[in-house]
Amino acid sequence: MINKILATGAPPFGPHLLSVSGLSPEVLTGILDTAESFLEVGHQTVKKVPVLRGKTLVNLFYESSTRTRSSFEIAAKRLSADVINVSPTQSSVTKGESLLDTVRTIEALGADGLVIRHPSSGAPAFVADRLRCHVINGGDGCHQHPTQALLDLFTIRKRMGRIEGLKVAIVGDILHSRVARSNIMTLARMGAHVRLVAPPTLIPPGIRTWPVEVYHRLDEGIRGCDVVMALRLQLERAAGGYIPSVSEYARLYGINADVLDRLAPGALVLHPGPVNRGVEISGEEGFADRSAILSQVEFGVSVRMAVLYLLMGGGSEEAFPDKGGKE
């Protein structure tokens, strides 16, 4: 699969990565396989390969981020690219500069790639239509978070050995979650059986047309599942107004060691972070061997290396030490 992608000389998903909606199972598998080849770079003494030397990536985050922004920065630097982080609070945005003027300025400065996170759904697509450089959606409103879905797929495949046929429960604030929307698309496309578990107020309208089963009781929704993905309760997006109280939500939908008894043997627990301790997850020390939360962070670097490589580089097998001929 890697050689087939390299042979095209073009990204397998177009010049930008804005959504997972158009990614076929073959393309998803190709991205995961490419990430697998980059995984060993993080275990080398010198954690760098030269495939993006001379390229510049800009991270433009209008919302706070630890994992995504740092992960993209580390991924780009491991590929030998230059990285610039632009904070709207320390830029001309505070003087009233528009989003379009900001990104056009960044491109004029020589950016080859732009990772953008924005509170408005559709902002990355708006930007991509007006720029020549590669644009990656780092999360837009309640819409999409494509690289999070890709790293979740990678984590599940790496820890469970497969994706097809697994029962995956996504628990919590589905209504406001771009992570849930992206994961539903990719998991279903890769053959997983997806369940949504949430109070009725946190289930999006029109959910019956999605490839999911919906449950409102935690014990029923996760029974027999191979993977449980807990979502952050997004209080900054008014999620608190959809539940009686945070403590009541934690009592009814929080994941703890006792809950694991209802899962399949060896089941994994995921969370995109940041975790509200004592709300979505509590007593993690009681199921540390089942938690894949730190694995998601670790594998996220390799997945984002793969995305950056396929978008901004490609065409060189030297990126894969000792694995250049891997299919």
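That was protein one. Protein two is written in the same sequence-then-structure order:
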Amino acid sequence: MKIVGIIAEFNPFHNGHKYLIQKAKEITNADVALCIMSGNFTQLGNISIVDKFKRAQVAIQNGVDVVIELPTIYATASSEFFARGAVNILNSMHCIDYICFGSETANIKELTEIANKLIFNDKQIWNNITEELRNGISFATARQNAISKFLTKYETDISSLPNNILAIEYIKTLIKLKSTIEPIAIKRTEQENITSATNIRNMLYNDKNIYSIQKYVPNTTHLSNFLFNDNMYTLLKYAIISKGTRYIANINEVTEGLENKIYNEINNSKNYDEFIQNIKSKRYQLSKIKRILVNILLDITKEDFISLNAENNAYIHILAINSSKKKEILSHINQYANVPVITSINDDIIKNLDVTIGNSLSLDIQASNIYSIISNENINKDYTNKI
């Protein structure tokens, strides 16, 4: 069985994703497309507009054969940790032949050369980033300034493009793991019926209905009840006020007194958008601020982040699977994977897992329950989901 792995958020699933899946299968001649997908909170610090189970089912309906949840600790982290967590899961399965991703350039040789240079100069790059941050520069700018010292102008330019950033991080992780998985880049395409997930979310946010986005998504029925960050503001406000500055200072990614700004501005802001604008500064980009707010909501401390970002925190939590291939796929994964394969959840299963994995899975369940509270749906869907 030949398997191609894809890492995605599907927030929401759109025609560009469908195109990527079709091309990935076509180029690799794979029998199975396996997707590592973010859960209910995403890498840019957003709440998913549709819950992970619905998004997983739509992916299955449109060419994916099995959807595995990317643990929350990675799904809500910066691009480096997001990529590391997802690729580590694929590598631990020992049966993935390819990893396929969209990028602004489809030149794997160029991306790999950049990845190797960044790995070789990693220590000096981080020293340079630290020095830049001391001068009040944002992390994104500090990173670009630091890596530009070791890359050509052309390499620096292409490494700053959003999809290339993730592509390079995927390749870096493959190199560090000495993985046999072959990376394949598919150039992002411009077509009349394809636009980005960000554009689709903006259209939904502004129009509050699905009619404006119908041409961009293969199935709109799952978008009948969608959420935005506005919807989590009340719960977030309670979390900030009840925990206070001393606790917020221990939340992952909170640095240099930002807890005071967060605590003060929650009292001066009428809604989520106003709140993040009040916190934003030259130093702190919106994506980092939004991730911090998700960390507060999900109660992810610096200690949690360090302990859960361990090499042994890899597990395969299957959210959905192609019913016609279910038996064959599960047999194949179980034969080769050296990490837990989880097809259903109960308390006994969690107790019998390695402590790190059990804590990480518990965080995934907590994130799902918070999402269910915000969407006014039943909690503990992870316990009742059937594949």
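The longest strand covers residues 32-38. Keep this in mind for the problem set.
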